Amino acid sequence: MAIKPFTKLSILLLITGIALGLFLTAQWRAKPSRVTSPVLPYTSLKGARDILQEENENLKKQISGLQDEINQSQELLKKSRVVSSASLDDLEKLKKQIALAPLSGEGVTIVLADSTASPATPDTIVHAADLRDLINLLWAAGATGLSINNQRVSAFTSIDCIVNTILINNARLTSPFEINAVGNQKQLLKVLEDPTNLPDIYRRRQLGLKFEIKREQNITIPAFDGSYTIQFAKIKE
Predict the structure, then answer these.
(1) How many Cα atoms are found within 13 Å in the side-chain-facing hemisphere of 159?
(2) What gap in Å lies between CA 58 and CA 45, rounded to an integer?
């Protein structure tokens, strides 16, 4: 006996309803996949941070060791006289220019720090943007070498904010920040002491932000010990 079209539709709807019911039951019984304890992801991230910090310190030691080997090779070349002294002097100047060697000379020291008053506000704490503004201004004023809390600033240096710390050359730094600048002292002071060059910092200094400038007759800033890895953008053909 043939099944009427209406009966076929009823059977199809019945099968669909049963399948949907089974699916909803499985979903209701399934355990939630989210982490129920907030401590677990924090512990995992803390462990990853500690591992990365240890790796970073080991890489810095390797870089320092390689720089020592380069310096020793240069001394051997000087003694052997295979390369002229003028060429080696040019090499040393170049190394200082690209931050591969320590640099000394006259300049200024700037102290930028959070206000000691409480509660802290966005206007009374140091931001990564403040350090970037200072560094850019000092470069423009003719500084030949810069460092922040003994971290040499080079063309490869990034200054970023991570929660309440500032990341410079993969080193996590907190207030206070000491910026050392080697260069023409008069020129550096001229631009730093002009409030129109750093209007936001001078405004916030009135609210408690610490911003001090000191003359220095002889500053020594360390060599750059970060990564020189460059990521080139892909050029579309």
Answers:
(1) 21
(2) 20
Domain limits, CATH 3.30.70.1880, in the chain? 103-225
pTM of full prediction above 0.70 = no
- 56, 71, 96 from 84: Cα distances, Å: 37, 16, 19
User: What's the farthest any 2 CA atoms get from each other in the chain?
Assistant: 110
pLDDT value at 43 more than 70: no
Answer for the pair 220, 102: CB distance below 8 angstroms, yes or no: yes
SS3 25: helix
CATH architecture under which domain 103-225 falls: 2-Layer Sandwich (3.30)
Q: Which residues have C-beta within 8 Å of that of residue 92, sequence separation ≥ 6?
A: 74, 101
3-state DSSP assignment of residue 20:
helix
Judge contact between 128 and 159, C-beta under 8 A. yes
